[in-house]
Amino acid sequence: ERMGKKCIGCGIPLQNTDSKKDGYTPKDINGKEELYCQRCFRVSHYGEHSSSFLSREDYQKELQQWVSPKRLALAVFDIIDFEGSFQDDILDILREMDSIVVINKVDLLPGEKHPSEVANWVKGRLASEGISPLDIAIVSCKNNYGMNGVLRKIQHFYPNGVEVLVLGVTNVGKSSVINRLLGKNRVTVSKYPGTTLLSTMNEILGTKLCLIDTPGLIPEGRFSDLMIEEDQLRVIPSTEISRKTFKLEKDRCIVLGEFVKLRVLNEEEQRPIFSLYASQGVQFHETSLEKASLQKENENCLHLKKKQKFCKEIFTIAAGEELVWKGFAWLSVKRGPLHIEVEYPEGGDIVIRKAFI
Ligand code: GDP
C-alpha cells in the first residue's frame, strides 16, 4: 500500500499501473504536480460529465445513493429556460427531500422584473409539480447577485451544518453556482470512499457545509439540444433576452430562426396580441403563409444536428398564458385567445404555462 497522492477531483488514491482500475493516471504520481485521475481529467476537460458519459439509468443510480432525509437538496434552475431545466429524477428528489431552489441567470431577464415576483412565480410553478422547497434563491452567477443569500439561507435552516446535494441539468449554471459558493476555499474531500466516482464532495471552508456535486445530464425535449453546437451558442442567451410584440391577422406567419414556424388561425375580427421572447441570436421574421419556409439556408438559419421530421400542432393560448419551446423561446399572450398552428422539429417539447412576464 502506497501512501500516494489523491486525485484532486474525486479524492481517489492515484495509481499508474492499471488503466482499467479506478484512480488511474498516466502521469508521474510522485512528481510535484497536483493530479487528476484520468476519469476526472476527462470530465473536466471534455465535459464527459454529460449524457455521453452517463445513461439515464446510471444518472438515476448516481443521484439515488445520496438521497437522505439528513441531507439538503440544492437544485439549480435556469430562469430563462425554466421548464427546460426540469428532469424527472431531479423533480422526484425534490418531492422527497428538503430543498432550497436556486434560480440562476436573472441577469438575462428584462429589467422591470422584481426578484420577489420571480420567486412567487417559481413557487407557484413548482407547487403545480408537487414541490414545495424550504426557500427559493434568485441569483445571477454572472455578477454574483444573490449568492451570499444562498449560503445564508442554508445556514438559517441548518445552523449545525449539513451535506448539500447539488442538482441540475447541463447548462443551468450548476458548476458556476458551486464555484461561487466555494470561492477560493475549495477542498475536495472524500468521506465516502467507494460509493461513487461521478460526484465529488467539497467542504466550504469556514462553514459546516459540504457540497456534493452530482453530474449534469442533458434533459429530454430541449430544442437547443437538437441543434449543431455552433447554433446552440446563438440560442442559449448570454445577454438580456429580446422581446418583440405582434398583432397579427389570420394566416400571417412568424418564422423563428428558420427552425420553428407559427401561423395565426384567429378569424379576422379578433387580432390577438402576443410577445415572443428568445436569445438575441434568434431572429423572429414575420411573413405571409406563401413565403414562410423552414430550414432555408441563410444567416438566420439554425441547423439541426441530424435530419429530423417536422410536425404541426395547433394550440389555443389564453391571455395570461405562455407557450414555451423548451431550450429555445416562449410566447406570451397579451390579448387572446390566440389560435396558432406551430410547425417544429420532432423531439422538442412544447408546454403551456401561466404567464411569467
Ligand atoms: P452547468 O452545465 O450547469 O454546470 O453550467 P455552467 O456553470 O457550466 O454554465 C453554463 C453556461 O451558462 C455557461 O456559458 C455560463 O457562463 C453560463 N452562466 C452560468 N451562470 C450564469 C448567469 O448567472 N448568467 C448568465 N448570463 N450566464 C450564466
Describe the structure.
The protein has 357 residues and is of the alpha+beta class. It is 19% helix and 27% strand. The protein contains seven helices and 17 strands. It has a seven-stranded mixed sheet, with helices on both faces. The chain is globular, with a radius of gyration of 23 Å. It starts with 37 loop residues before the first helix and ends with a strand. Residues 104-105, 107-108, 140-142, 168, 170-176, 216, 238 line the site of guanosine-5'-diphosphate. Guanosine-5'-diphosphate is lined by residues 104-105, 107-108, 140-142, 168, 170-176, 216, 238.
Global shape: globular
Major sheet: order of its strands? 3-2-1-4-7-6-5
Q: What does the radius of gyration come to?
A: 23 Å
Assembly status: single chain
- Tally of separate helices: 7
Tell me the series of helices and strands, N- to C-terminal: HHEHEHEHEHEEEHEEEEEEEEEE
Q: Whole-number average pLDDT?
A: 89
How many DSSP E strands? 17
Distance between the termini: 61 Å
Strand content: 25-35%
Any low-confidence stretches, pLDDT <50, length ≥5?
47-52
Helix content: 10-25%
Characterize the main sheet: 7 strands, mixed
| Cofactors, ions, other ligands | guanosine-5'-diphosphate
Decide which structural class fits the backbone: alpha+beta
Short descriptors:
single chain; 357 residues; alpha+beta; 7-stranded mixed beta sheet; 5-stranded antiparallel beta sheet; 7 helices; 19% helix; binds guanosine-5'-diphosphate
